[in-house]
Amino acid sequence: MKSYRKELWFEIPTRRGFRNITPLVEECLAESGIKEGLCLVNAMHITASVFINDDESGLHADFERWLEKLAPEKPYSQYAHNGAEDNADAHLKRTIMGREVVVAVTDGRLDFGPWEQIFYGEFDGRRRKRVLVKIIGD
């Protein structure tokens, strides 16, 4: 069995944002040479997320509104975590959207269902953060 590991780095210029990282993960898979196995993609920061969904701008706007209703950024004073920091909402949003995804690798390709894509979700941006891609298989 082979193993491949790569870190992808992102710096979203706004506090929150979504980025389709499917092409970058597909590049990693091609570099790995693995044809059958599993691909793990996970955010390596507690205020960022990796998730699978459709790449549709209306849906992304819906995520933003929904998450803001569930864990509003302001007022900062509503959160016990906020003191030296102002990002309690980002921690909650990450928990809702998830830390990682695992995608089957079949015949050298990511084995997605219809419309599935991998996204990086940022909830406390404006600084560099990383995503780990780990692929195992043959």
CATH architecture: Sandwich
Determine and state the CATH class. Mainly Beta
Give me the side-by-side strand order of the main sheet. Answer: 1-8-3-5-6
- Output the CATH homologous superfamily: YjbQ-like
Portion of residues within helices: 25-40%
Instruction: Tell me, rounded to a whole number, the average pLDDT.
Output: 97
Multimeric state: single chain
List keywords for this structure.
138 residues, alpha+beta, three-stranded antiparallel sheet, 3 helices, 25% helix, 36% strand
Strands, helices and their partners?
Elements: E1 2-10, E2 17-20, H1 22-32, E3 37-43, E4 48-53, H2 57-70, H3 88-97, E5 100-106, E6 109-110, E7 117-122, E8 129-137
Antiparallel strand pairs: 1-8, 2-7, 3-5, 3-8, 4-7, 5-6
Structure description:
- The chain has 138 residues and is α+β, with helices and mostly antiparallel strands.
- The chain has one domain: Jelly Rolls (Sandwich), CATH 2.60.120.460.
- Helices cover 25% and strands 36% of the residues.
- The chain contains 3 helices and 8 strands; from the N terminus they run E-E-H-E-E-H-H-E-E-E-E.
- The protein has a 5-stranded antiparallel β-sheet, with helices on one face. It has a 3-stranded antiparallel β-sheet with strand order 2-7-4.
- The protein is elongated.
- The chain starts with a strand and ends with a strand.
- The model has no long low-confidence stretch (mean pLDDT 97).
